[in-house]
Design a protein that fits this description.
Elements lengths: L11 H35 L4 E4 L1 H7 L6 E6 L3 H8 L5 E3 L7 E6 L2 E7 L20 H6 L8 E5 L3 E4 L3 H6 L2 E2 L5 H7 L2 H13 L2 E2 L1 H9 L9 H12 L4 H11 L2 H4 L2 H4 L13 H19 L7 H9 L4 H4 L1 E2 L5 E2 L3 H15 L4 H13 L3 H6 L4 H11 L3 H11 L5 H24 L11 H8 L5 H17 L4 H14 L8
Helix pairs in contact: 1-2, 7-9, 7-10, 13-14, 13-20, 14-17, 14-20, 16-17, 19-21
Organism: Saccharopolyspora hirsuta
GO biological process, one term: tRNA processing
Cofactor: Mg(2+)
Length: about 500
């Protein structure tokens, strides 16, 4: 079990109750997946091999959240595993066979079976020298965290917990089986995984894990941007992303993977209601997630919204100005921030559509404040909707989340102003097709009316008509033709006289 030096605020009785509940969870979950797991275990036993449910599958069973993806480990070598899966699995894949892993699918359940590992690391990169082991003990000690280093041998269901994983799970504590310095030196990605598990599980990293992460933060540069991106995305899509971000920042890991976020700690929010822009951004992240969940309680986490909430103010450090009256301004920080977000997400190898959407939200997040300061025209409302395009629902959430102030009266006024804006959008949308604000004449009609071939003139005419459409709303065909002809005459294009 875990060392008694570990500290947890829960009482001994509470921890024992959690352990008993975890054991009950595991029994229920294992009974649910038993048909597939038991069949597989019996095939291995008949061939003289041991089979263990392991890692995240055991952890999730104990937490009562086991899915239909099961992880197993065995002393059987990959080719022997392939033979045992043949004739049993509906599908088999061996893309990970060089690392000792084969996957299979049967009756709605996916299984991955990995031969015991006893890898060695050169501590320069992160790819190990793959070596197969012969014992479950050797396999478990090389795993990342104690809560992922438990196993259940099947078909007998004997529980293997050599590193206090059950106690750590009950205490909601994240610790390593071996010394964290050795674990992270072998694979620095585990430091990011620690922050990710803090977000996903709501656990707290042990003091020694936090110390090792802090001391070894610079080692994360050994990890490719693609792998960093995957862990960061999983962290942000977790149940408690703020806690994961705080761990990255507090240990210095964020300085290497997302430096724009800790840089915000230097700035004081112009509203003076937050300790700094960093804390304000974490609050916006929390509130955006609350709005996301309220809108769709069963929906998937919105990575784009969460990235935009976290990064929306990263342009403030570079735009801070101290005003003569003692105030602070951040003029055009949304423009600077959009460029910075684009650059950082590109460096992390995010897909182009994610980069564009996050950067657009950062760029647009301040636009609403012109509305709250004075009444917009219908034209301004149309432009807001047009510029947001399909991002409008996310922009609504981001702007509302960003209306943070300790002045309750001011906060209520901001929310009322945004309520009013949404009502106006709905009203204008009912009168016009706001989702598809397009000129009242298409390109083919423009070419026919002006007698021109495809080229720049058509695009300029189309853009002119779209601007009129945004300003004035829908026009009749006659009005649109008259406006086109008027524009063409200004350009020196011969058109029929009106």
């Amino acid at each position: 079990m875990s060392s008694p030096s570990h500290h947890d605020s829960a009482t001994s009785a509470e921890l024992q109750a959690r352990e008993r509940q975890a054991q009950r969870n595991a029994v229920v979950e294992l009974v649910r997946v038993a048909p597939v797991a038991e069949e597989l275990a019996e095939r291995f036993a008949a061939a003289g091999h041991r089979l263990f449910l392991v890692g995240g599958s055991v952890r999730d069973a104990l937490l009562g959240r086991l899915g239909t993806d099961l992880d197993f480990t065995t002393e059987a070598r990959p080719e022997q595993v392939r033979e045992l899966l043949s004739g049993w699995a509906e599908t088999i894949w061996d893309t990970g066979i060089e690392f000792g892993t084969l996957g299979a699918y049967r009756h709605g359940t996916t299984v991955e079976i990995t031969t015991f590992r006893a890898d060695t690391y050169d501590r320069v990169g992160r790819n190990p020298e793959v070596a197969f082991g012969d014992t479950i003990e050797g396999d478990l000690v090389r795993r990342d965290f104690t809560v992922n280093a438990m196993a259940i041998e099947l078909p007998g269901r004997s529980f293997v917990d050599l590193h206090g994983g059950m106690a750590d799970l009950a205490a909601r504590r994240l610790d390593t089986p071996a010394a964290p310095e050795d674990s992270f030196a072998d694979d620095p990605l585990r430091m990011l995984r620690a922050a990710r598990f803090v977000s996903q599980l709501g656990f707290t990293a042990s003091d020694r894990v936090v110390r090792a992460m802090t001391d070894m933060a610079a080692e994360i540069v050994r990890i490719t941007p693609e792998r960093v991106q995957v862990e960061l995305s999983k962290l942000l899509c977790g149940e408690f992303p703020r806690r994961g971000v705080e761990l990255l920042v507090d240990t210095g890991l964020a300085d290497h993977v997302l430096p724009e976020v800790p840089a915000m700690k230097l700035e004081i929010d112009e509203h003076h209601q937050h300790k700094d822009v960093y804390r304000h951004s974490l609050t916006v992240l929390d509130q955006a997630i609350d709005l996301e969940r309220a809108a769709d309680p069963d929906g998937e986490p919105d990575l784009v919204l969460r990235l935009a909430a976290l990064l929306h103010d990263i342009g403030k450090p570079g735009t801070r100005r101290f005003e003569s009256g003692g105030g602070v301004s951040f003029h055009h920080h949304e423009v600077v921030g959009a460029k910075m977000a684009r650059k950082r997400l590109r460096a992390l190898r995010y897909p182009k559509d994610v980069i564009n959407q996050v950067a657009d939200l950062v760029f647009l997040h301040l636009r609403f404040h012109g509305y709250s300061d004075g009444q917009w025209t219908d034209s301004a409302v149309r432009r807001y909707v047009n510029d947001a395009g399909p991002l409008l629902p996310r922009l609504h959430k981001l702007v509302r989340a960003d209306c943070t102030t300790r002045n309750k009266r001011k906060a209520a006024a901001l929310q009322r102003a945004y309520d009013d804006l949404e009502e106006r959008i709905d009203r204008i949308a009912a009168e016009e097709d706001l989702a598809k604000v397009r000129p009242d004449l298409d390109g083919n009609e423009i070419m026919r009316l002006l007698g021109v071939d495809p080229g720049p003139v058509v695009g300029k005419a189309w853009k002119h008509l779209k601007e009129l459409r945004l300003d004035r709303g829908p026009m009749s065909r006659e009005e649109a033709v008259a406006e086109l002809y008027a524009w063409a005459r200004e350009q020196g294009i011969d058109v029929p006289s009106s």
